[in-house]
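Fill in residues.
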């Protein structure tokens, strides 16, 4: 099924960026894509275990939103498809890769694995295996930011929270309850729906009575916007506006990013439910290839500059794999550590 909503109303027309900004966005998307490609290789070579959900195709959403935030200050809350969110939030590639290998040097000391990335240093609130599980966590983080600022008088406590989740989470009660609370308390949070059209094997349009998720924000008096999730500049523009509103105390925003994952639900998914026609259609809208063409068209980058970034990122990923392979396993003496808070 090819969705009728393939040309969202919110596009990049009129958006202007500098060369430095453009290269920064391109580099971040390439990092996500090449990292996930390497994950697939390592998984099939038996270096990773369990379920691994890759992000290929959705890079414009993570980059467009997270790079609109303050690094290491604003909060990011992810899902089980969390590797690229972690990378965009600033977690070093070697720590993400080591976590996937279950090593002690991973960002969660090897205890989280693919679906539970966490980094206190980078304000990454975690990946969550249960659908919609991160939405209340992100809402709580936004509440404490508002409480610190307004009740405790901390002038610098103007942090914004970006909460990512998929279209399948939007029929979950936590989604509606948290949107209600966020508007009621005017919380500084951005709810980002990564609508990739499929909730595992359930087509989005078959699962909900109102397929336009952004419209559900209006029931609570919250701004809701639909963006082209394959266009990093469209996502970034919407995110910057939502961040500005949140930081100014004007409350939450719901962004529905229409995107598509190029791989199956997980690396264990044979991906037989989606038609070849649908997959080929969305491949023509590859966010990285199209943004590279945009940079060239606007004379913001040459082909050689982009190739140089590709080579640089590949070297980072190769070093991440080497680091992960050489890192130690968690010591069995620490089996019960991190279960409870430590002094």
């Amino acid at each position: 099924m090819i969705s009728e909503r393939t040309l969202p109303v919110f596009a990049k027309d009129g958006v202007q960026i500098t060369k430095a900004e453009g290269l920064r966005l391109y580099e971040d998307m390439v990092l996500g894509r090449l990292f996930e490609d390497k994950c697939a290789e390592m998984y099939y070579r038996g270096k990773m275990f369990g379920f691994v959900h890759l992000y290929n195709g959705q890079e414009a959403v993570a980059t467009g939103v997270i790079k609109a935030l303050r690094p290491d200050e604003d909060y990011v809350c992810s899902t089980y498809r969390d590797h690229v969110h972690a990378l965009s939030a600033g977690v070093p590639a070697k720590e993400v890769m080591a976590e996937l290998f279950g090593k002690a040097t991973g960002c969660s000391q090897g205890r989280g694995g693919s679906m539970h990335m966490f980094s206190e240093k980078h304000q990454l609130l975690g990946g969550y295996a249960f659908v919609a599980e991160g939405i209340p966590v992100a809402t709580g983080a936004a509440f404490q930011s508002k409480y610190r600022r307004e009740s405790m008088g901390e002038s610098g406590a103007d942090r914004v929270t970006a909460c990512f989740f998929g279209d399948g989470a939007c029929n979950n009660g936590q989604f509606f309850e948290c949107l209600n609370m966020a508007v009621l308390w005017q919380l500084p949070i951005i709810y980002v729906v990564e609508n990739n059209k499929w909730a595992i094997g359930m087509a989005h349009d078959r699962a909900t009575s109102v397929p336009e998720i952004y419209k559900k924000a209006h029931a609570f008096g919250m701004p809701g916007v639909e963006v082209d999730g394959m266009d990093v500049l469209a996502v970034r523009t919407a995110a910057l506006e939502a961040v500005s509103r949140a930081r100014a105390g004007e409350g939450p925003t719901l962004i529905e990013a229409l995107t598509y994952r190029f791989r199956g639900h997980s690396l264990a998914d044979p991906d037989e439910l989606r038609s070849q026609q649908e997959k080929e259609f969305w491949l023509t809208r590859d966010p990285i290839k199209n943004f590279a063409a945009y940079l060239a068209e606007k004379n913001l980058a040459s082909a050689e500059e982009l190739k140089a970034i590709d080579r640089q990122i590949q070297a980072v990923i190769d070093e991440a794999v080497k680091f992960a392979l050489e890192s130690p396993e968690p010591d069995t003496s620490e089996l019960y550590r991190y279960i409870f808070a430590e002094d």
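Residues 9 and 227 are 7 Å apart (CA to CA).
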